[in-house]
Amino acid sequence: MINQQWHLVSRPTGEPTPSNFKLVEATVPDLQDGQVLVRNHYMSLDPYMRGRMNDGKSYAQPQPLNAVMQGGTVGEVVASKNAAFQAGDKVVAPGGWQQYFLAEAAQLPMMRKVDASQVPLSAYLGAVGMPGVTAWVGLVTIIEPKAGETIVVSAASGAVGAVVGQLAKARGCRAVGLAGGPDKCKAVVDEFGFDACIDYKQHPDLKSLSAALKDACPKGIDGYFENVGGITLDAVLQRANAFSRVAMCGMIAGYNGEPIPLLAPQLILVNRMKVQGFIVSEHMQHWPAALKELGTAVATGKLKYRESVAQGIEAAPEAFIGLLKGRNFGKQLVKLV
Amino acid sequence: MINQQWHLVSRPTGEPTPSNFKLVEATVPDLQDGQVLVRNHYMSLDPYMRGRMNDGKSYAQPQPLNAVMQGGTVGEVVASKNAAFQAGDKVVAPGGWQQYFLAEAAQLPMMRKVDASQVPLSAYLGAVGMPGVTAWVGLVTIIEPKAGETIVVSAASGAVGAVVGQLAKARGCRAVGLAGGPDKCKAVVDEFGFDACIDYKQHPDLKSLSAALKDACPKGIDGYFENVGGITLDAVLQRANAFSRVAMCGMIAGYNGEPIPLLAPQLILVNRMKVQGFIVSEHMQHWPAALKELGTAVATGKLKYRESVAQGIEAAPEAFIGLLKGRNFGKQLVKLV
Fold first, then answer.
1. What residues of A are in contact with residue B274 (Cβ under 8 Å)?
2. How many CA atoms are closer than 13 Å to the CA of A12, on its beta-carbon side?
3. Tens of pLDDT along A197-234?
4. Nearest CB partner across the interface for B259, out of A248, A266, A279
């Protein structure tokens, strides 16, 4: 059985290009005792993958060269020689950029069965998956919002940002988003229920962005969920209230190039702020509570999300490059089945 | 009775100069019911005072112009029309840059009696006072050191820094200081018991300072007590371990001029760090525990400190300007009696 898979064949300098990837045809080997074979239905594309394509120091091992691109997937078990899984089980898995994922026994703890009757299977890669839990952990455990506070989120139309704002609203906060372009901003307010959304493309300099934040946050900023880096953080610090909290989740603005300095770090002291970086996989103790709230909210229609779905495995690199440029709207997926 | 006092008469741009201050002769008014008159024995000079000389947004009200410079003092009650204090009481007070402090009833909660039999009176402005408690709060409640970790402190020979390192040592940590010049570095190791001290004047650029930190911290940095800002924080971030903590207490490097950018803020995310600013007066709940540990440690000779003592009220502005330039060694005081 043929298994098409994308390998990383060279490390990008700056923006990735299609030539960094190669589509390889492998053969699915015969199943051994203890193994499970999964057919991937959807692949998840995420900004963190750009960081792993570098060889430098980071919180995770680099993506190896000439090996399948790593990433989350949802799919269906098609064959199993392990009592924990049966053919027909729907699963979330670290299945990678390929059509079939052969899970070794040692990988099974990273694979979990999901119920696709109440929640669409693809949502387990988004609002009820890693992005949703990322939003929950950063907001609930680092920002710790209190009713009446103002919470700002960058990349607010994205898979993480949209959930942050909706969870903040559910906790009685004012939610203010930043997104690129009028269509995304409209959806952030009309679909996701934020109180306001700033089109950062209309505010390319710090002074203008800071003024827009002042307008949107008349009581200042109490919490900021950081997905982008760059001047957005500078502007937020100018509007931050005493004892405000910043959850640093992503700094996509800096992934492709040189670090972007923080202009006035003394504001962290002046405002007695807490700025804390985190990655969701190091907060496993919070996943059950997060998934419970997120799954219920999606199943009952209270938590909205959008998906950008690329069709077919061939589309993965271009979709990933587009994701890094902000061309997606909501969770970026690749549909394989 | 004549009361010599220093007024701030103009706001400095950049470094303060003697012309920003004016020595004024006032008269001590007659004591009214409820008031207490204190003769100041020592005045405390502190870096935070420079920040308050600005008119901009900060965590405290600016120092008013044409009014007595605010600041902590220790002294002796010389007259009292309030049952809570008697002549002869030794007190810590917000007595300001003057010879006599007339405390209104409303100010008495900020004044406390101290026992000068076990601990020298001046130490209540240093190791057993605001600087010592600052060290305790930042280290114990923000850095939360664990035995075996490496804790780095800037301005390590100063009133705060020297205490940070000694408290870290008492908790089983490796303590590494940064100080200016070989004499201060020698004292940090020989007198205060740090494991190592880096002379930052020998490392004027980031690469050199980062290499020095690597040598002094072979297991990386788990906690950093920030007293200075500038490239020291950049260098620390390059050597910071996963889950390390930065307590931001002072950024003296930026007080006199433009903000100094933080070069690579994404390291806060990469290292999943917590960076938190604080001011000690907002953590009053910790003062009793801190003062108990600090007072016992000074009384039993376990906690060492140094003082730079300027003589006479006339000397205050020059001593303050010298403090900002790092000319002091340990707690900067002005002795009045």
1. 274-277
2. 22
3. 999 999 999 999 999 999 999 999 999 999 988 899 99
4. A266
Cα separation, A26 vs A45, whole angstroms? 21
In A, which residues are within 8 Å of B249 by CB distance? Answer: 269
In a domain, B16, yes or no: yes
Q: Say which CATH number the domain at B73 has.
A: 3.90.180.10
Termini Cα distance of chain A: 16
**pLDDT tens-place string over residues A18-39:** 999 999 999 999 999 999 999 9
Does residue A255 sit in the same domain as residue A113? no
Residue keyed to tokens 């100010």: B107
* Residue in A249, A262, A269 nearest the CB of B277: A269
The domain in which residue B253 lies consists of 130-281
Residues B257 and B324 grouped into a single domain? no
pLDDT digits (tens, 9 = 90+) for A163-188: 999 999 999 999 999 999 999 999 99
**Do residue A269 and residue A137 come from a single domain?**
yes
CA gap B186, B171 in Å, rounded: 22
pLDDT band at B58 (very low <50, low <70, confident <90, very high): low
User: Is there a single domain that holds both residue B96 and residue B32?
Assistant: yes
- What part of B 261-320 touches A (C-beta under 8 Å)? 261-266, 268-279, 282
Residue A242 lies in a domain: yes
| pTM for the full predicted model | 0.89
B248: CATH: 3.40.50.720
Q: Which residues of A touch B210 (CB under 8 A)?
A: none
Question: Closest chain A residue to B275 measured between Cα atoms?
Answer: A275
Same domain assignment for residues A134 and A273? yes
A119 touches chain B (CB under 8 A): no
Residues B41 and B61 in one domain: yes
Distance CA(A178)–CA(A157), nearest Å, equals 8
> B-chain residues within 8 Å CB-CB of A276?
268, 272-275
Check pLDDT > 80 for residue B325.
Answer: yes
Residues A268 and A318 occupy one common structural domain? no
* Cβ separation B274–A276 shorter than 8 A: yes
Q: Within this chain, do residues A261 and A202 fall inside the same structural domain, yes or no?
A: yes
Residue B265 to residue A251, Cβ atoms within 8 A = yes
Q: Name the E strands within chain A.
A: 2-8, 21-27, 36-44, 73-80, 90-93, 100-103, 112-113, 150-153, 174-179, 196-199, 221-226, 240-248, 274-277, 307-311, 331-335
| Mean pLDDT of all residues in A70-92 | 97
